[in-house]
Specification:
This protein is mainly alpha-helical. The chain has helices at residues 8-26, 30-67, 72-100, 120-126, 134-154, 158-167, 183-188, 193-214, and strands at 127-128, 131-132, 173-174, 180-181. Strands 1-2 form a two-stranded antiparallel sheet. A two-stranded antiparallel sheet has the order 3-4. A hairpin with a 5-residue loop joins strand 3 and strand 4 (180-181).
């Protein structure tokens, strides 16, 4: 098991996400909202594919552990990572579903991305006055728990530890105006619903990608 830097596929996904964020900030047209929604759906699908692939890898590793004792320690660690990852993804998936369920779907049951342009969900769900709601604080606490639990498993794997510390921390962020902004404000305040949901989906996708690299 070994960590690693972002692979080409994950880099492409992250780049696409940043491009769409920029597009959404410049233009709130129905076409951009739909494009953003379709990208979010692809991210969610990619996360599901990774989860299925990870289960196959874990099963294969379990079979090897049953045949050869030298695989047992690795299998035990992989099981821990699967449990930690699945718990965090469950939290993120439920949050994403909550966001989507605030707007009515189309007649065919598909999400209506064109009406997911309001910012009130993220603003009310995560923020209260100058601080955070219980939901906002839980979002940060869950991130901390995932990162710390994973770091306890990966041990001295420096690359994996660096990736966890980089992608799952909520330190203030310097924006384009060189102003320090709190993580939650930077990621969610004033965001259209579809962009807020995509922020959550992107994090879920990264969790599964890290699990895949680890196993």
């Amino acid at each position: 098991m070994a960590g690693g830097k972002l692979n080409a596929r994950q880099k492409m996904i992250n780049l696409m996400y940043l491009v769409f964020i920029a597009m959404l900030a410049l233009n709130m047209s129905k076409e951009v909202l739909t494009a953003f929604g379709l990208m979010d759906a692809k991210l969610a699908n990619n996360s599901e594919v990774l989860a299925e692939d990870n289960e196959l890898k874990l099963t294969a590793l379990g079979e090897k552990a049953g045949e050869n004792a030298k695989f047992q320690e690795n299998y035990a660690k992989a099981q821990q990572v699967d449990k930690i990852s699945s718990e965090y993804v469950t939290f993120l998936s439920k949050l994403r579903d909550t966001m989507y369920n605030t707007v009515p779907p189309k007649e065919n049951g598909q999400p209506d991305y064109e009406i997911m342009d309001k910012t009130d969900f993220a603003d009310n769900y995560f923020f209260k006055g100058e601080g955070l709601t219980e939901n906002g604080q839980e979002y940060l606490d869950r991130m901390d728990k995932y990162r710390n639990d994973m770091l306890a498993v990966v041990g001295d794997d420096a690359e994996m530890a660096a990736r966890l510390n980089e992608n799952f921390n909520h330190d203030p962020i310097i924006n384009d105006d060189e102003i320090e902004v709190d993580y939650m404000n930077y990621r969610f305040e004033g965001y259209p619903l579809i962009a807020a949901a995509s922020n959550v989906t992107l994090l879920e996708n990264e969790v599964r990608d890290i699990e895949s690299d680890f196993v």
